[in-house]
Amino acid sequence: MLRNGLEPWHLLVLAIVIILLFGSKKLPEAARGLGKSMRILKSEAKAMKDDGAVSARPVSEDSTVREV
User: Fold this and answer.
1) How many Å apart are CA 61 and CA 11, to the nearest integer?
2) Ranges of Basic and acidic residues compositional bias (predicted)?
3) Is the pLDDT of residue 3 over 80?
């Protein structure tokens, strides 16, 4: 059905529609907000990965584990 779905003129039309909908003044603001959100998301994902690596460390032999 959509054999040539993303041709260059499709992207041009999409860009024009977005500019008309949001206006040229709001687009840089929206891009800054998106960039800031992506940085926050990236740092939070890295922090979660680091927390997972710390908690997944093997238990040393000298620590005792009791079973109930």
Assistant:
1) 60
2) 59-68
3) no
Residue carrying structure tokens 């891009």: 31
Backbone Cα Rg of the chain: 24
Find out whether 48 and 54 touch, Cβ atoms under 8 Å. no
Q: Is 45 helix (H, G, I), strand (E, B) or coil?
A: helix
- Report pLDDT digits (tens) over 35-63: 999 999 999 999 998 887 766 555 555 55
Q: Whole-model pTM?
A: 0.49
Return d(Cα 32, Cα 45) in angstroms, integer: 20
Alpha-carbon span 48 to 52, nearest angstrom: 6
